[in-house]
């Protein structure tokens, strides 16, 4: 059962998510006596979290004062992928003030990658995006101890095991920081501003370099005892399958992920089963998952089969999760979501066919609405939450 949130958190989140509100409406929405609200608002104004914003329209009596989050609040949102870095600076409403995106290899190690993050944030400061940061939220592509703020034995992140990411960012920027895995922040982002807005129980499935699942139960992210809930990419789907980066064989992401699809596509190009991929290999020297998507949209039979095979494997795993958790929505995101409706149709088909009718009778399986911005959006939400917690 979800525990009751402190009043200050409820109030600050309401202003974050809904914007400027009158004191009278705040009291109504929060269902608290007005004197108690006014005392809490005075406290939050003194702490620098809230500011007055003029007078509200009359509701038939004395006009109420409008309040908003302090316009000077600034949060940093960072989404680290296997091959990219996304950094945003937002205001208290999580509206973008500055944004940077560039290619980066997570295997370069934490010192190199986090130094680049700090350089991008320093550039934002020079460009006038902020004077000081109030919190930093960051997602990384591997298992994370949310409690300790460190990655733990991440398969595709050599050198990151137990690296003090939260501690380093807190020290560098003089504000609280929060660290989570990339699929959790994508789920949080989609819940905040995407297709899963107001959905309390859903699965967000990221299909990219790896495969992971963000789990929302009763309106909160479920991370598990140690923070590794949702690591579905390492569920075995073929006991005779290829070796996975985790050291086991036949894992889902060893059979279908960005790297696995590129490997299968290269084989199809070289053995001549896909003329479209053979042409792309000859022209570019490599073939990628995006080449598969483009060739499939042109009707290439081999590429369509590769996508359907992957969708069937993902759908099989999700069918088990649907029977176990009974979510009210499944959202598909990540880099391979651009494979589009061929992938989505196959996942849907398997989930609906293999799960109980009671669990799938009203179960939408949809593509992410936020796409590549899901991660930074969720990192911003986490940053704001950890900043607001400081107001206790």
Automatic annotation (TrEMBL):
InterPro entries: ATPase_NBD, HTH_MarR-typ, ROK, ROK_cs, WH-like_DNA-bd_sf, WH_DNA-bd_sf
Keywords for the protein's UniProt record, in alphabetical order: Kinase, Transferase
Record field: transmembrane: none
Superkingdom of source: Bacteria
Ranges where the HTH marR-type domain occurs: 6-52
MF terms (GO), sorted A to Z: DNA-binding transcription factor activity; kinase activity
Family as reported in the entry's similarity comment: Belongs to the ROK (NagC/XylR) family.
Protein name: Sugar kinase
